[in-house]
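Quick one - inputs below.
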Amino acid sequence: MITVRFFAMLKGLAKVESREYKIDAPITVAELKSILKKDFPALGGILEGRSILISVNQEFADKNTVIKDGDEVGFLPPFSGG
Amino acid sequence: MELVRIQRENFSINEEVERVKAASKGIGGVVVFLGAARDFSKGETITGLDFEHYPGMAEAKLKDIRERALRNFDIIELGIVHRVGKIDIGEDIVLITAASAHRNDAFMACEWAITELKRTTPIWKRETTKGGDVWVSETP
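Output:
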């Protein structure tokens, strides 16, 4: 099982804070995005935009990062702290 | 109390400065950056703010900023406190406290740290306006 977490505006669009997925084998971030685009049409092209950062186990990742069973993947809109 | 933390409640600037100064008697200058909640943004009136963070990752990024500041600037100590949750206009949001033997290093480290915080720390601001609540999508 992997856990996908949405934050800030993405959480509002997805209408959930997180979603768990069972994966039979490791997948890449790019592959996960394809799944999410089907499951969350409201996120549509936003996930492909360069402004959305992705974390795997709370470390910044890119489209080629491999996600394994038990991992936590975060979808992070542009930060606005401070 | 940790020098670097995220919390809902307000903080005391004096207490944070004293906490950082306690690191060494060799501190001769302390520079603070205080971020406060203003009542306008991009021409709109703002009546309140609400901050969300990624628990665990946000704290780790702030700790990383402190460690890199201590490595890369000639400072003695650096503290960072960021609030989350609902914040009223005029309230304090973030405090960065940089201490060094001589002022220039503290000025440079403090400015670098707030810029780095805005760039790397998963914290998001939602502004309450007349038209409703809006997530701020880009760091100004």
